[in-house]
Amino acid sequence: MKITRREFLPVGAVGLLGGYAAWQGAKTRPKTKTAAGSSPVAVIKAASYSDDLERRIRDGIRECDLDVRGLKVLLKPNLVEFDPNTCINTDVSVVAAALNVFRSLGAAEVRIGEGPGHRRDTYAIAEMARYRSEIPDFDNIFVDLNRDDVSPLQGFADRGEIYLPNTALRADLIVSLAKMKTHHWAGATLSMKNFFGVVPGSIYGWPKNELHHVGIPQSIVELTRIFRGSFAIVDGIVGMEGNGPIQGTPKSAGVLVMGGDLPAVDATCCRIMGIDPTKVEYLAMASDKLGITEESRIEQRGEQIRTVRTNFNLIEKFHQLRLA
Amino acid sequence: MAVSYLGVRLDRLRQAQNGDGGWSYFPGKQSWLEPTFYAALALHGDPAADRAWDLLRSWQRPDGSWHPSADVQIANWGTSLCVTLAHIRGEFGEPFRKGVANLLDTSGEESKFVNRAAAKLGILETQRDFSLKAWPWKPNTSSWVEPTVHALVALKKASAQVSSADLRERVRIGEAQLMNVRCSSGGWNYGDPAVLHVELPAYPETTGLALVGLQGHKDLGKSLDLASRWLKETKSPLAGAWVTIALRLHGADVPESAVTEVSADRMILALEALAAPEGNHHLLKTEAA
Fold first, then answer.
1. How far apart are CA B141 and CA A186, in angstroms?
2. CB contact under 8 A, A213 and B76
3. Which of A160, A240, B164, B176 is the right S-S partner for A181, CB 3.0 to 4.6 Å?
4. A317/B196 touch (CB, cutoff 8 Å), yes or no
5. Which class would CATH give B5-284?
6. How many other CB atoms sit within 10 Å of the CB of residue B89?
7. What digits encode the pLDDT tens for the residues B75-91?
């Protein structure tokens, strides 16, 4: 079996598992009201970006009983790079709608932050993705997480510590506004993988190669642990299939998937995409430690998975991920 | 108050200098090595640049590397920037020599024996030539285009003071590595021309940077043509500045930028000042090592 450079290099990541027993959230963050042993995940239909997305997002938040009154909220979209021929980024209409909804629900402050992994001019990508033109006052509410001031956090896989942006560390609630995409290294990129954008390029570079050397699944899990207590809204109105996360093709799934248990949200997204979440390495690692991935223990609210499931094409190396 | 494209940017940089002598990336933030380096280059000869160097000098680590801010105690690619700045300032003492030695000791993880062997045996899938040593963003990670460019500029400059076969060899191999990761379009992205045998696109900013690192290298016609085209097309001020700097260093006649917006991003502000026709881009000029 051939393995890739990114899979091969992180030989030091094996020490990660030893730290699982001591897992705890980085700080106290609001929790959605969750029945014992289960997690609510809302699947809300949205046929297109011209739908009433504010209402859809409000419906999903209500289904998950999230209370954001008085909180400092950071919206973390997936803004990677721009290609007019495909759909790499969280659509601007979803970001704009989320901004309005969290403000209207009484959040004390709502900011948007992202640190793209490949391109250095974050504002230029935001311009091309129409964030700057369609989100009022964008430049004043946006933080380039690649170049924010930072603080160290102890205990990140085998590396001991990691520096993370103060804007993210000081937020009361981070909303992972992810895109529903396949991923050529991880299988799928959803709300958990979206945290890669929080790691500052000013220290770790472009790409954030430190995370590849630690191990992509391990890094996804570690970042999800650090930002435990976040909320997820996954833009699956039009996702990406095939050779994601950059060079795949658009795939309409017509849904927004939301919840406060990120592994449960991502597992649900996988099932909608026709991917078996138990075979996605980072979800297997996170299962029962950071959240629930078992279908029977996820409280499905809104649409049922079987009514919205649409198989995303998978590249050959991930054919074995296909859900039966 | 200055009204010229360059003067406005230099004035803005002077006003934005932090009390410790450095510059932040954005207003109201702490000083970082990278914007401080570019601002110090743009203002070279100005007392503000001397204060910047005093700060950066204090950030050198015992092993000769530099850390990127007062609060971040790990080494990264800023070492190359500080070696370059020391050279430009004519500071050839111990900090400079230790910085050069540190760069010569640093290489991407992919060029370690175990990874080269794995690539050779076909158990490690890559389109890159792992025998070509280059430089990572931070130690213990793989090499990429931008940190390699900065190390090449630093070492080519340093070659006049540090006569070493090792240095000349690292420059030769570093340049070869950049050529190895060039995309089929003639440009560069962050450093992978293909993933899983699918070609990746090049970016204007990294193409500009690579051309800065490859000054004096042959076979760059296609890349320079692409850079010239991108100069007209790019919507990124950062990319525009790097492409302009590269074209000027390669002898092209580039008109002054038509950008009127003065960026709040201090690094872009400094790069635009460097890229101006009368700006200090010539400080990044290198000769063959």
1. 19
2. no
3. A240
4. yes
5. mainly alpha
6. 17
7. 999 999 999 999 999 99
